[in-house]
Design a protein that fits this description.
Strand content: 15-25%
CATH class of the largest domain: Alpha Beta
Structural class: alpha/beta
Radius of gyration: 22 Å
CATH architecture of the largest domain: 3-Layer(aba) Sandwich
Mean pLDDT: 94
Shape: globular
Number of helices: 15
């Protein structure tokens, strides 16, 4: 029997411990990203003055502005104790340099998470896939049981009041700990929930799975020796890399109802159940959390229905790794049995496409019709040229009868879909680029 997590954590430090010469104030550069938005909410909730700057202007009705965020116009400096930037923002960016010149301490988003982990216990949710879902699910389950947990989730979650909440600092702060650029090495968590380990982020890990596993081993070594690592059913066993207690989670019983579709979400649910049990929840409370959680934004999210053709359901999902694509399509068939699944897929990053090229075509086998958008390039070297057209021969060979096309422009895609879609189809958009915006324009 594992110890109860909540019973062992006694730190009660507030965010004011981070205050500097300019008091309780910070500048967030790249503030429009999901994680950065959550960070902004944490500090705003604590009464800090928070300035935000992003390449895209904040909408007038942005909830962050209503919560007190002060949007910085381009080029306008702000004096603050901290300047925090997303991984996409270089240290030489104008607002970052201006804040540093005025005396602010500089940190990446991941480094600020490390600072937070010095103030209170942290439950880090780690893994190549499923971090957002599991983080949100854990926060939801504990909150439903009346436990004022803190959380920082990388997406909006309809069943939570916000994407982040400081909560009771004597309890753990649930945070996603991302392996990209080895950012999770800035954390020294008390406990870890591990979903799985897979080859991902080839720009960070060109050596593939062995290099990824090595990075995770370093992360596990940083977990508190008094802590625990809860390993999901697909996580493997890395007990030899850590002084923390390694706990392998059992599969859910077949009679346990899970509110999220998909075999992968039963695996996620097993991990969530173990965490909830370790916080002292009774079986009825755990079963309630498993059955009633509705998921996070862009995780098989229904965003609307078309009037013509009648009954076409529009669904958006963040899946962009071939393992995620295959899992999402299996879940879609489970959620909408018997309905035709028309897939709009946009690969994310030429580097990822190049590294896992042989896995993408098989991952799309469950699609009944397939429209491919050109690769969404992000952090890609200019010399690396790749095109979604390279998938076409294998896709055709795997299913010669399936409708298949590639498009470069949204307008061309809309026209083609107009001729493809039939009543009661499910139109599923997959990808981490702007494919979600394309889908929402169809409503």
């Amino acid at each position: 029997m594992s110890r109860t997590l909540a019973a062992t954590h006694t730190t009660t430090t507030s965010l004011d411990a981070l205050a500097g010469p300019a008091g309780c104030s910070l500048v967030l550069v790249g503030a429009g990203g999901c994680g950065m938005r959550g960070l902004a909410r944490l500090f705003l909730e604590a009464g800090w003055t928070v300035y935000g700057q992003d390449a895209r202007p904040f909408a007038e009705d942005d909830p962050l502005l209503a919560a007190g965020l002060r949007a910085l116009p381009p080029g306008e400096p702000a004096q603050a104790s901290w300047v925090v930037r997303s991984a996409a923002v270089p240290e030489g960016e104008t607002h970052v340099q201006a804040a540093i010149a005025s005396g602010a301490r500089s940190a990446l988003y991941a480094e600020m998470l490390g600072e937070l982990s010095k103030l209170r216990p942290v439950l880090a949710v780690a893994g190549s896939h499923g971090k957002t879902t599991c983080s949100a699910w854990i926060a939801y389950g504990l909150r439903e049981a009346g436990i004022e947990i803190g959380w920082l989730v990388g997406a909006e979650v309809p069943q939570l009041p916000a994407s982040s909440r400081w909560g009771d600092p004597s309890l753990p702060l649930v945070v996603e700990s991302c392996e990209y650029a080895r950012s999770f090495h800035h954390l020294h968590p008390t406990d870890v929930a591990l979903t799985n380990i897979d080859a991902e982020h080839p720009d960070t890990y060109p050596g593939g799975l062995p290099e990824v596993e090595e990075a995770f081993a370093t992360f596990f070594a940083q977990v508190s020796p008094q802590g625990q690592i809860f390993a999901g059913p697909e996580a493997g066993n890395f007990a030899g890399t850590t002084k923390a207690r390694w706990l392998s989670c059992a599969e859910l019983r077949s009679d346990v109802k899970v509110g999220l579709a998909g075999a992968h979400n039963r695996q996620n649910g097993a991990l969530v159940a173990a965490i909830l049990q370790a916080h002292g929840l009774e079986e009825a409370q755990i079963l309630h959390a498993l059955a009633t959680f509705g998921g996070a934004a862009r995780r098989l999210e229904t965003i609307g229905t078309l009037e013509s053709p009648a009954g076409v359901t529009l669904v958006s999902d963040y899946a962009h790794h071939p393992v995620e694509v295959a899992a999402t399509l299996q879940a879609a068939q489970e959620q909408w049995p018997g309905r035709r699944i028309v897939v709009l897929f946009q690969p994310h990053q030429a580097q990822r496409f190049h590294a896992y090229r042989e896995l993408f075509a098989p991952s799309l086998d469950r699609a009944d019709a397939l429209l491919l958008l050109e690769i969404y390039r992000a952090r890609d070297p200019e010399e690396l040229r790749a095109s979604v057209e390279e998938l076409v021969p294998e896709l055709q060979a795997r299913n010669p009868e399936r409708p298949l096309a590639t498009v470069r422009e949204f307008a061309e895609g809309r026209t083609l879909l107009g001729s493809w879609l039939q009543e009661d189809d499910v139109l599923l958009a997959l990808g981490a680029g702007d494919v979600d915006a394309f889908l929402r324009e169809l409503r």
